[in-house]
Amino acid sequence: MGGRPSSPLDKQQRQHLRGQVDTLMRNFLPCYRGQLAASILRQISRELGPQEPAGSQLLRSKKLPRVREHRGPLTQLRGHPPRWQPIFCVLRGDGRLEWFSHKEEYENGGHPLGSTALTGYTLLTSQREYLRLLDALCSDSLEDHTQEEPDSLLEVPVSFPLFLQHPFRRHLCFSAATREAQHAWRLALQGGIRLRGTVLQRSQAPAARAFLDAVRLYRQHQGHFGDDDVTLGSDAEVLTAVLMREQLPALRAQTLPGLRGSGRARAWAWTELLDAVHAAVLAGASAGLCAFQPEKDELLASLEKTIRPDVDQLLRQRARVAGRLRTDIRGPLESCLHREVDPQLPRVVQTLLRTMEASLEAVRTLLAQGMDRLSRRLRQSPSGTQLRREVYSFGEMPWDLALMQTCYREAERSHGRLGQLAAPFGFLGMQSLVFGAQDLAQQLMADAVATFLQLADQCLTMALNCDQAAQRLERVRGRVLKKFKSDGGLAQRRFIRGWGLCIFLPFVLSQLEPSCKKELPEFEGDVLAMGSQALTTEGIYEDVIRGCLLQRIDRELKKTLGANDVSCTLDGCLEVPWEQEGAAPTLNLVSSFLAGRQAFTDFLCLPEKSSANTLAASPLSCSCFQSGFHRDSPVFLVQLAEGLSHPTETISSHSVWSFQPTSRQ
User: Fold this and answer.
1) Which end of the chain is more exposed for a tag (fewer CB within 10 A), N or C?
2) Residues of the chain by 3-state class (helix, strand, coil), percent to 5
3) What is this structure's pTM?
4) What is the pLDDT of residues 62-102, one digit of tens each?
5) Does pLDDT of 608 surpass 60?
6) Domains of the chain, with CATH numbers?
7) In what order do the strands lie in the sheet with 172-175?
């Protein structure tokens, strides 16, 4: 296992990678600028347009999603040659994993032996499965595997392994001492991987939507139309993944034959080389986005000032061009939809629906059980201390990894079936879809918990005894469950519409590319005459196709649900799947575009700062059962509804999530 290149990257290779990153930025930033303008137009039109008749009924939780810090002893396979060594591991609140030589080193503020952001990793707890994956990395050298020493370190059975695998980074091999410790670490690491990965999808900032659309358009211009998991992570991490995928075939052909070692030793060395390449690309992408940040801030402010006064005229002009485009492409578009999409759409919609129904039912069950426990505790033991503990546990339900695992597993069950249905359309983003369903379940649980605590706080008074208070809580329980049902149905339809678009839209665009794209130059003159970079022929063309797809998805939803309240998107609607019809829930409530931001130099622990690395304060309301009772009644304390306030960290240039500091920080 000791074979590896003496120097992962020489000077010439580093210069080559810098050139590749510069080329990527030159080609990507024009797409980004255009999508920033389109995103601002979309946001303004949504603000001025008609609001949804049936909005959310649950209160919005002000508690941001966060990674729960976890720490404890593990053993790690490291060194050259690799061997199992004891370490003390810490999962930070920002989704970063660090390991120290021993616990005292961590407690004394020492530097870690190593660290990594969990973005893009996959966790395996089966040694056999991990070895199969490792063998597949260098399949051309499998014939040499039998020549390895029989007591190879990875051949020694590991009782409770935790393997972190990444397509472009060094693998991390850990082992826990007990099954219980392995289970706790598995939950913690999976939660960190998810929240670290969906940071852009959960952002409300217009620039985040623009960035995701720009990545999709850039890749389409490179000939890649299918959706996959490349957009998991921060902006710099996403661009790094894009470039790594482009460069991987050439890198493999040029360097893999020259790696020393054989079999799994060569695979291990290959992951170390990839890690060095990934670090160099990540540093370059982060520096490029950081350099673009001032221009982006200025551009956003300018776009807001220029687009808002003329928004009505822009939308009318856009509608005229969209109508003409719709007429020109109707024949090929309808033929493609009828031939390719319609036969599979019912099964895709039904599978998405079953996925969300199972997840939401699991959330509802946990929510009802939690509310019932509070009522029972109130009747059985009015002690203030015990009740405070129960209220706090109830408020922490959305962030309880073990508890929410029931809901998260329901989202994972559809991975195989839905993946098979979507694969013929080039959709390979099943991990993103599962993460989106899990984020949505967590958000709905958080909103329902916040609503229950707020309503309970309003209806409880000092004049009530415990039985009367419990009866009022039961009435609140019924109200919350009704609100949850309404919001759950709305979120379910948005989820299906959003992910239906993600599955089918790139495929339809690729099918129409040869026949319909050549018609677009005819409309360039009309679009250019509008004099706004917020409108492009390509953007209007995609909006037309998106509108037709949404009509079909809505029609199928009506058939499946048997409901008449499924809102249909009109042709030419500017909404995109990550916005109002979002494929993933919006969990963040703080815009990343704040004046006077303070640089956070340790952002994501990258070699260079990314496009915006800031800390922002997020005042959280903290009301919960503020009324108290006397005699046989419990005392409810303030600051339990939303738990303790957590400072928030801006991750990438678009998103905010909660950062949970350690005691020594």
Assistant:
1) C
2) 60, 10, 30
3) 0.84
4) 887 878 899 999 999 988 888 899 999 999 999 999 999 99
5) no
6) 11-48+56-63+202-308 (no CATH), 70-137+156-198 (2.30.29.30), 352-512 (no CATH)
7) 114-117, 96-100, 83-91, 70-78, 172-175, 161-165, 122-124
